[in-house]
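Case study 2.
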Amino acid sequence: MNTTTKYAATALAAALGVTALAGCGGSDDQASGDAGSGSKTVTLVSHDSFNASDAVLKAFTKQTGYKVKVLKSGDAGAALNQEILTKGSPRGDVFFGADNTLLSRALDNGLFTPYKAKGLDRVEADTRLDAEKNRVTPVDTGDICVNYDKKYFAEKKLDPPKTFDDLLKPAYKNLLVTENAATSSPGLGFLLGTVATQGESGYQDYWKKLKNNGVKVVDGWEQAYNEEFSGSAGGRKAKADRPLVVSYASSPPVEVLYADPQPEEAPTGVATGTCFRQIEFAGLLDGAKNEAGGKALLDFLISKQFQEDMPLNMFVNPVVKDAKLPELFTQFGAVVDKPATVAPEKIAKNREQWVQSWSSLVVK
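Prediction:
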């Protein structure tokens, strides 16, 4: 997967003219070379979109004595590739950013030392995909879903689609824009959602019908959401003409948060029957120089304090049962009760073939 739920949500904030807060301890081009077992610095290797408030990271330092150093390494796929190349001699102590579409690749390469984080019993059971060995710790969830432009559908007096099957209806012809599954995280997630709902024997036929119904495919989320989608702030400026886009369940709250003035209602909605669930993990890197600090950081990532800090910094959902969502999420965000899912081992076995088949059907 080329990026993550958080990556695109943070990109949405940037598109609306907002600069995300930098984490305490900053991010460097290189990890600290002298961070050994007695070091007071713990290095977190992550994709570019890790973000936490200064106050929360300072609280971690106060509680443990460790200062967090963030080593950002591109998108999720690129960051994971770098860790595979440095396997056994990692650039940091904890890796954050492998989601359920990348998890088997990380585990098969033996990147992590098993560790059962303190407080893991408070984490939702359905997110613990490596519960038997605890090589990774769930940190957040997010949902890739079709978003719709409320104004467009109101003016056309047309109900927005609710499910994958709805998107095939003639009423929605030439309305949807999605991302390339071979180059984009939400594009791949949407493809996996169709595999989950249509079956391995049915997803190709589904995409043939969707293509015939005028779906437009672009390279990435930025182009789809901010240039092609009529409901986004960027799309309105660009005079976009597609009122349906593959984005995230967290996109409507971001549209509200960074609008000036803030509207009383989000301008976009979510078709909750089109969602694919992402789960993001962190793990103690095998060969970490500061193993004690790494374990303390994993404990902190599932603390209530950090979990409640995430939504407005990374636009994702907590995995801890007693963590509360901010009012912005509960008021404007979509509740996805039954997202589509595919087992990580099944994704690992079939991902390349699914993407190749999709490309042959839709792009070529």
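Residues 1-8, 13-35 have pLDDT under 50 and may be disordered.
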